Amino acid sequence: MQTTKTEVMNCSHYINGQYVKPENAKTFENVNPATEEILGYVAEGGKEEVDQAVSVARKALKSEWGNMPLRERSAIVRKIGDLILERKDELAELESLDTGKPLWLSTGVDIDRAAYNFHFFADYMTTLGTESYQQDDKAIHYAIRRPTGVVGLINPWNLPLFLMTWKLAPALAAGNTVVMKPSEVTPMTATVLAQICTDAGVPDGVVNMVHGFGETGAALSTHEDVDAIAFTGETVTGTAIMKAAAPTLKKLSFELGGKNPNVIFADADMDDVIDTTLRSSFINQGEVCLCGSRIYVERSAYDEFLERFAAKARELKVGDPFDKDTKVGALVSKEHYEKVLSYLDIAKEEGGTFLTGGKAAEGFDKGYFVEPTIITGLGSESRCVREEIFGPVVTVVPFDTEEEVLEQVNDTHYGLSASLWTSDIKRATRVSAQIEAGIVWINTWFLRDLRTPFGGMKRSGIGREGGAHSFDFYSELTNITVKL
Ligand SMILES: NC(=O)c1ccc[n+]([C@@H]2O[C@H](COP(=O)([O-])OP(=O)(O)OC[C@H]3O[C@@H](n4cnc5c(N)ncnc54)[C@H](O)[C@@H]3O)[C@@H](O)[C@H]2O)c1
Ligand SMILES: O=C/C=C/C=C(\O)C(=O)O
């Protein structure tokens, strides 16, 4: 098993363009989930550090950053993407050490996309207009756009750099200043990112970062001088942030949990269904908010699907994130590993059948490895069908009619994404329009175009990100009326 390649990396806060190493600062351990070795120590920020970061960010908003010509700001945002690509190998290694995900995935998905987030939003911002109306011979109305202000970016551990940059890039392109709060479980790539921003020419005080647990995030959500919070994470945390932010009426953008369905009709291309469902179930150890964890298959294709899907799932190599043949790495932390295993116990109690997996992967003395698990025989009341497990665990259920499957698909508080499989275009458009989710993929999964609206309905989120939607959040419009 690959141990720590990188020397121990400690993670400090980043305030006003430099790492902050306060004396006698509290720290906590950062653990490699594949080896249980200590990767380094992370500064634990409290109210004091958050106050400091917010006050610096507030000042920076009024300085050169806020007044910089758009072309110059956009060039700096682009440059951050370039520097991420220059440091791709280092960042990918850190991401895999921190999360336990395979290195090929960090390299080919996480870091690539992090760089593209900056390139995309830098370009998009330069083409973005606003509305204007001529009202007969009475008036002209036009809107101007300005930064939302100081924005808190609070992020989870599953796609650490990918998701932080999904927020940071549009926030910077629109001229905001930020305080980032990475997940306490995966602090390393954000720590490097802060320095990269300075190296790219972002003025001091524009990008700040405070590490820590939920209390650190709460210090941001309650802060008088933070204008908005962009949060990705669990639905219950979203509730806590909404409550905390209410007294200061912050603008909120929430990307929350999901329990996404895959709906497979018998007329679908089964080779494609099997390959894509394998990815949507087990990529990143099932720790992607968009993973399809409830699989519904039309009864006439059910047996064939199960046989072929299970055979391929059994072939997936679980293990060392740094082995190029590994398909499923380690779960992100001991706490999360225990949570996922507890759902496997629940599945047993509920009378489910494990077609594959159902247990921790064998042959590892250390690390948080779980076998790809396919469960059948659970009804719609099962906790494994209703609750987000966020691991390499899926349930498969047969259905007979469109109406019946739609009822099951929508019988949830979540509404993030769905993947629908059929060769009948009429059925595809009819059914997709009835699925209560912010994103529906037809005959594919996780095919992204960053211009499209991205986000969840119901308890899977508030608002949309992507393209102009991101800029609706990261800027405020003032409508100006000129009397003619
Ligand atoms: N919809 C999406 O786009 C999307 C994307 C990725 C992950 N997710 C969701 O994220 C979850 C997994 O991530 P997680 O376990 O890190 O989520 P989490 O909600 O536990 O933590 C996310 C972040 O919030 C912070 N936090 C915790 N309590 C807080 C509080 N009271 N106030 C402010 N901040 C607080 C954490 O320290 C962390 O930085 C899953 O539910 C997954 O579905 C959603
Ligand atoms: O785990 C969540 C995945 C989120 C993906 C995106 O935010 C995206 O593709 O823009």
TrEMBL record:
The active site is at E255. InterPro entries: Ald_DH/histidinol_DH, Ald_DH_C, Ald_DH_CS_CYS, Ald_DH_CS_GLU, Ald_DH_N, Aldehyde_DH_dom. Keywords: NAD, Oxidoreductase. Residues 20-479 form the Aldehyde dehydrogenase domain. Pfam families: Aldedh. It comes from the Bacteria. Belongs to the aldehyde dehydrogenase family. This is Aldehyde dehydrogenase. It comes from Virgibacillus sediminis. The lineage of its organism: Bacteria, Bacillati, Bacillota, Bacilli, Bacillales.
